[in-house]
Amino acid sequence: xxxxxxxxxxxxxxxxxxxxxxxxxxxxxxxxxxxxxxxxxxxxxxxxxxxxxxxxxxxxxxxxxxxxxxxxxxxxxxxxxxxxxxxxxxxxxxxxxxxxxxxxxxxxxxxxxxxxxxxxxxxxxxxxxxxxxxxxxxxxxxxxxxxxxxxxxxxxxxxxxxx
Length: 163
Description:
Residues 103-154 form the RNA polymerase sigma factor 70 region 4 type domain. Residues 9-72 form the RNA polymerase sigma-70 region domain. It is built from seven helices and no strands. It is mainly alpha-helical. It folds into two domains: 2-71, Rna Polymerase Sigma Factor, Chain: A; 92-161, Winged helix-like DNA-binding domain superfamily/Winged helix DNA-binding domain (Arc Repressor Mutant, subunit A).
């Protein structure tokens, strides 16, 4: 089981962390959630339970939702600090990219569930539609419709910001 477990950690830790971090906006909490998810995987395998990639994402998402419920408020996405006027062009381009990333992250954070989770799991982690459906207990067609709505809401939010 040791090799199998290390392989699962190696293959899935970055995607799970990206989901947890996007949902929580906190590095330490995201790391804790991922660690707890892998502990649950270990326990599940020890008890003879089956492993599915979708199960990992479902556990991670549910743990994040629990944390957000306990907070009772939405988390804030941090935006880059304002820089002085004596910044070189390449540095100012970098700041603009950081600000744009911040605005995209902010717009994603404003999405309701399950839109937020679907968008992160598909666009950041590149998960298949079937894995998304299994992770969120949705049908494949519901998953596609919700993901379409999530993209549309994100696009409308960004258009308002840059209109």
